[in-house]
Design goal:
Blueprint (H helix, E strand, L loop, with lengths): L11 E5 L4 E5 L3 E6 L7 E3 L10 E6 L3 E7 L6 E6 L3 E8 L7 E21 L2 H4 L4 E6 L6 E7 L2 E6 L4 E7 L24 E13 L3 E10 L10 H16 L7 H15 L31 E2 H13 L3 H14 L10 E2 L10 E2 L13 E2 L11 H14 L6 H16 L19 H21 L5 H18 L24 H4 L7 H13 L27 H13 L3 H12 L11 E3 L4 E3 L5 H17 L16 H6 L2
């Protein structure tokens, strides 16, 4: 299959309705959207192929984009188009909390005259199902809509009707968009129409004109939903996001990016279930043209836990309790069946398979759906969950019987897997090993269990947990430190370094100024930090991950280095690296998973929770180090008492 030239990720905006998300390019093309959830099959997949794989482009004839922005403190996107004859502002948004899944596009001609044109190509199930479309009458109103159905899914388009370009016609549709038979009443069992390839339309607008379209998803066996009032939906969307974000103070560009990062973390949360997805997309490559393309539209316990920790630092505890409830449901049952990741509703089966008909972003194949890593054992996961739940406790949200019972089960899981090798935080697909980061996180799990008993009066086998914590620390210091350099190592089996080792002080097992950490930082600077200043996860040429090819620097690893610099007294280095990383954000304040410093392009899945939470933590660290704690409301560093850490008690 011939490689395609893909739209740079920096050109995309992200919309969220707290169920799913859309990516909208600067030129007005919605190239990625899954209905009704983040992990549902797509209806627009041009991001991973061509326009024929589904998109909805709304642009202006002979126009250029002069400005785009989010309305302050919202996910309402405004794009201003200018032409030789006029100006139009296109507003795109997805209303949260309105009881249904929909996407609304509105055009307002602010001066002169313009020609607005549409190109809508609905492709259900990752472009494996083209819809059957017919014109319908909406309820008892005079408004018409276009109803597209394929299998269990249906989309209703309301607004000025577009022209249909059918492959075949049961009831031919004229170029005016009017069917040769009257519209039906929208009953799901009554079909009129044809298999439609695409819909187009050009609309003349003059100063003051406003045109609106809404695309609404519903189950195909049900009646179409009620049409959306665009003005009310816009007000609802604006009110929701401005209220949610109102507790965050914004002082400058950096704090605007912090606010946007916190909003992205919220936007990647499914409000109905409490699940938090790692990113809104699948198969955006870690190297353009490479095979390291993974599906991130699921809830990793690790990523979600770190997200929750970050939100708690800003007093967003209600989202944390919602996630805790999700966690209780997702991991219910035998603790031995614990997975590292789940569907956004807690689903356990996430089989990995490939879509060979999609060309892939920048020709990067395969395009994968599902994630085989769900079957892996990763020793660090319980530690991150325990740290997040401890942060919730410290924030004044007490454990109930169920949540503390869950944590004791998680510690039993750790105990039963003390001698089990794993695949590590980076989900290596090579030979399992004892990863030092994973073992340190196991230490952190027992440490937080002990603290819960000692400081909060909860019950547990204190002596047993203390013994296990001590054993783990002694083991890590014996087998996880390179005798030659004095640095921590990636695994017990090798002497490589890994960027995840920068997280050891965050657990409390050692301090940020521990000589072994400082030696580790020196090696990371030498071996994993390129001339460009950004940090790679590890050296892929060692074949430790069992995959061909390479990858670009991971943004979260560079943010971790900022933290380490800040907390170990290298304040100038921390500030300088943070400034470089701030410049990697898009004009809308969005980060992907990685950054290619050669081309200056973002790479990997987008927007990425890991990168955004890493940015917030990095800003917190720099502000704490400089004594300017305008942002961080809580000390997020657990267990940093050096004397206690050195004893391992």
């Amino acid at each position: 299959m011939e490689a395609t030239k893909s739209t740079p990720l920096e050109e995309y905006a992200f919309l969220s309705d707290l169920r799913t998300g859309a990516l909208v390019s600067r030129d007005g093309s919605i190239d990625w959207l899954c209905f009704p959830r983040f992990d549902s099959p797509s209806v627009f997949a041009a991001l991973l192929g061509t326009p024929e794989d589904g998109r909805w482009k709304m642009s202006v004839v002979d126009g250029e984009v002069s400005e785009r922005r989010y309305r302050p403190r919202t996910f309402v996107l405004e794009t201003t188009w200018r032409t030789p004859t006029g100006t139009v502002v296109v507003t795109d948004f997805m209303p949260p909390d309105d009881g249904q899944s929909d996407l609304i596009r509105q055009a307002h001609c602010t001066e002169g005259t313009v020609q607005l044109e549409h190109d809508l190509r609905i492709r259900f199930d990752y472009n494996r199902s083209k819809p059957w479309t017919r014109r319908v009458k909406i309820d008892e109103s005079e408004q018409d809509g276009l109803l597209s159905i394929a299998g269990p899914n249906a989309l209703l388009l309301t607004g000025p009707l577009l022209r249909s370009h059918p492959e075949q016609r049961a009831d031919p549709v004229a170029e005016t968009g009017q069917p040769e038979c009257p519209p039906d009443k929208g009953h799901p069992g009554h079909f009129q129409g044809g298999v439609s390839d695409r819909f187009t339309g050009t609309f003349s607008m003059g100063a003051g004109d406003v045109l609106s379209w809404a695309l609404l998803w519903h189950e195909s066996h049900r009646y179409p939903p009620r049409p959306v009032d665009p003005a009310k939906a816009l007000q609802l969307t604006s009110d929701y996001w401005t209220q949610w974000s109102s507790r965050v103070d914004v002082h400058d560009r950096e704090h605007e990016l912090v606010l946007r990062s916190l909003m992205v973390l919220r936007g990647l949360t499914v409000q109905e279930t409490g699940g938090i997805v790692a990113a809104a997309t699948t198969s955006l490559p870690e190297e353009f043209g490479g095979v390291r393309n993974w599906d991130y539209r699921y809830t990793w316990l690790r990523d979600a836990a770190l997200t929750i920790e970050t939100l708690i630092t800003q007093d967003f505890t209600e989202g944390a309790t919602h996630w805790r409830d999700w966690l209780l449901r997702a991991v219910a049952g035998d603790p031995e069946e614990l997975q590292i990741m789940y569907g956004v509703g807690g689903e356990r089966q996430l089989p990995e398979w490939e879509l060979n008909h999609l060309a892939g972003y920048e020709g990067s194949r395969p395009v994968r759906i599902g994630n085989e890593a769900a079957k892996q054992y990763q020793a660090d996961v319980v530690g991150e969950v325990m740290l997040a739940l401890a942060a919730l406790r410290e924030a004044g949200i007490p454990d109930d019987e169920s949540s503390w019972g869950l944590q004791k089960n998680l510690l039993r899981f750790c105990e039963r897997n003390m001698n089990r090798k794993g695949h590590g935080i980076w989900e290596m697909r090579g030979t399992p090993a004892f990863f030092v980061h994973g073992r340190a996180m196991m230490w952190a799990a027992f440490d937080q269990g002990i603290r819960a008993v000692e400081n909060h009066g909860l019950d547990g086998p204190l002596d047993q947990w203390r013994a296990l914590r001590r054993t783990l620390r002694e083991e890590i210091l014996e087998h996880g430190v390179d005798e030659r350099t004095g640095s921590f190592t990636q695994t017990y089996e090798n002497t490589e370094v890994d960027a995840s080792l920068l997280q050891l002080p965050h657990t409390g097992i050692v301090g940020y100024d521990d000589p072994r950490i400082l030696a580790t930082v020196a090696r990371i600077e030498q071996e994993l930090r390129g001339d460009h200043g950004f940090v790679y996860r590890y050296r892929t040429e060692t074949d430790v991950d069992g995959l061909p090819g390479g990858e670009y620097p991971f943004l979260v690893c560079s943010f971790w280095l900022v933290e380490q610099y800040a907390y170990s007294g290298r304040k100038d280095d921390a500030a300088a690296l943070l400034e470089r990383l701030t410049d990697c954000a898009t004009d809308l304040g969005l980060y992907s998973e990685e950054y290619d410093p050669t081309s200056g392009r973002l790479a990997g899945n987008f927007p990425q929770a890991f990168s955004h939470l890493g940015f917030v933590r990095a800003v917190n660290a720099v502000e704490e180090a400089t004594g300017n704690q305008r942002l961080s409301k809580r000390d997020r560093r657990p267990g940093t008492d050096p004397a206690r850490d050195e004893r391992g008690e």
